[in-house]
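Hey L., structure's done. Input below.
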Amino acid sequence: MLRFGKFLAAAMIALSLVGMFDAASAQTPDPRNWRQVDPENTLYIDTVHGRIVVELYPEIAPRHVERIKALTRLGFYDGLTFHRVVDDFMAQTGDPLGTGEGASSLPDLREEFMFRRGPEMPFIQAAEQSRARLGFYKALPIESQPDAQMAVTNDGRVSANALHCQGVVSMARSDNPNSGNSQFFIMRQPNSALDKRYTIFGRVVWGQEAVMQIAVGNPPPNPDRMIAVRVAADLPESERAPIYVLRSDGPQFRDLIEETRRERRADFSVCDVQIPARVPRNPNRERSWWSIIPFIP
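Output:
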């Protein structure tokens, strides 16, 4: 039964990747509007519901991204459960004990709730609420001071923080702000009460549907697991696909914001803006979906 379960999991992951290829164009997307996600800062989380692809942001939370990649490369996350999943909130994992009380043997991390944004990190404003400027850096929803203030700060940068919208990945902690270690959670729905209180280090750019299918409970009666977690750059090219995300600094992105604003009207929020991603076909090489992922015996 265990062997069949692993086979089924592999099949589900493969099928999710087939969809990635079938839904995409046969050509590389226009670079004016699409950017390729860096494999070194891309996390693959394989589940029975499909692959969850997370873009990591070392420029936002360098210590936390370094920790996540280090534990991933040690195989620490393989097989760990989603031990706390709240339906309209988030899915939490990364605890070797599966109780919510466990952690890795590495030291706890200092918080990285805020970051300093410079001119190399373009901010695209989508809304202004109570004088707070809300928008995007890459695929990440953020709040930021305006660019004009860079001219009067000592470091030429301004304060910013990421927002807990759906798909955002954040580090769990205890009451101590500097107690993040190995546990993290993926947002199933927005929750602004977490902003500037938990360190955000990534966002799901593909596979949010899989996140929404994770078994609910605290703990769930039959918890789902992370079958395998890998940094994309560590896999052979045949086992990964180049993912392109709509550029937040491209000409099509403002159209996306305005379209979402028209649909939502008075209820509009930056968390409503769903940033599309795509995987182009490779016309020079035929790839079966079994070649995209390693077989799990």
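DSSP finds four helices and 16 strands in the chain. The helical segments are 2-22, 62-73, 208-212, 251-264.

-- N.
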